[in-house]
């Protein structure tokens, strides 16, 4: 697993703290963005959350309890990563397993990137002036490490099934 620089860690911790204690409402911004992007990229993904097939607008999607619950789950993972910046390795098993689960429910690894874009968008919207190029890069670096571990689990699950 890759390491983050001391500067990256400092920028991530600082900006995460700036968002305040309650991260979930910020996560809701993710919902809006993810919904839009998912519709563009792969509308079929929405059915994975067991939406009614009528989930054909961002508004329907946002009001789905399954989707909102999943946002809380994503924010939990991001929060865990920020809390373990000095030892991301300790999350390896958890992230591998998470990747496996996503492979099992039919989520593509490219979709993890969409969630990453949404996270950056949420940070940009919430941090305003504080969202500098180095802050963006630090978050990208951290998210890439998380997704790389999830993707390893995803691939492993696919290989195990093929055996
Ligand atoms: C567009 C991309 C994604 C889709 C379509 C997706 C879909 C799903 C689905 C269908 C489930 C199972 C039902 C549920 O628990 O809600 C799930 C579980 C979960 N997802 Fe995602 N997911 C995506 C990306 C991510 C990312 C990037 C993260 C974390 C950074 C994440 C974190 C989780 C967690 C923590 C669970 C619960 C796993 C468990 O029950 O042990 N998801 N996801």
UniProtKB/TrEMBL annotation:
<dbReference type="Pfam" id="PF00042">
    <property type="entry name" value="Globin"/>
</dbReference>
<dbReference type="GO" id="GO:0005759">
    <property type="term" value="C:mitochondrial matrix"/>
</dbReference>
<keyword id="KW-0813">Transport</keyword>
<feature type="domain" description="Globin">
    <location>
        <begin position="3"/>
        <end position="155"/>
    </location>
</feature>
<keyword id="KW-0496">Mitochondrion</keyword>
<dbReference type="InterPro" id="IPR050532">
    <property type="entry name" value="Globin-like_OT"/>
</dbReference>
<dbReference type="GO" id="GO:0016491">
    <property type="term" value="F:oxidoreductase activity"/>
</dbReference>
<dbReference type="GO" id="GO:0005829">
    <property type="term" value="C:cytosol"/>
</dbReference>
<dbReference type="InterPro" id="IPR009050">
    <property type="entry name" value="Globin-like_sf"/>
</dbReference>
<dbReference type="InterPro" id="IPR012292">
    <property type="entry name" value="Globin/Proto"/>
</dbReference>
<keyword id="KW-0408">Iron</keyword>
<dbReference type="GO" id="GO:0019825">
    <property type="term" value="F:oxygen binding"/>
</dbReference>
<dbReference type="GO" id="GO:0020037">
    <property type="term" value="F:heme binding"/>
</dbReference>
<dbReference type="GO" id="GO:0046872">
    <property type="term" value="F:metal ion binding"/>
</dbReference>
<keyword id="KW-0479">Metal-binding</keyword>
<keyword id="KW-0561">Oxygen transport</keyword>
<keyword id="KW-0560">Oxidoreductase</keyword>
<dbReference type="GO" id="GO:0005344">
    <property type="term" value="F:oxygen carrier activity"/>
</dbReference>
<comment type="subunit">
    <text>Monomer. Homodimers and homotetramers. Mainly monomeric but also detected as part of homodimers and homotetramers.</text>
</comment>
<comment type="similarity">
    <text>Belongs to the globin family.</text>
</comment>
<dbReference type="InterPro" id="IPR000971">
    <property type="entry name" value="Globin"/>
</dbReference>
<protein>
    <recommendedName>
        <fullName>Nitrite reductase</fullName>
    </recommendedName>
</protein>
<keyword id="KW-0349">Heme</keyword>
<keyword id="KW-0963">Cytoplasm</keyword>
<comment type="function">
    <text>Monomeric globin with a bis-histidyl six-coordinate heme-iron atom through which it can bind dioxygen, carbon monoxide and nitric oxide. Could help transport oxygen and increase its availability to the metabolically active neuronal tissues, though its low quantity in tissues as well as its high affinity for dioxygen, which may limit its oxygen-releasing ability, argue against it. The ferrous/deoxygenated form exhibits a nitrite reductase activity and it could produce nitric oxide which in turn inhibits cellular respiration in response to hypoxia.</text>
</comment>
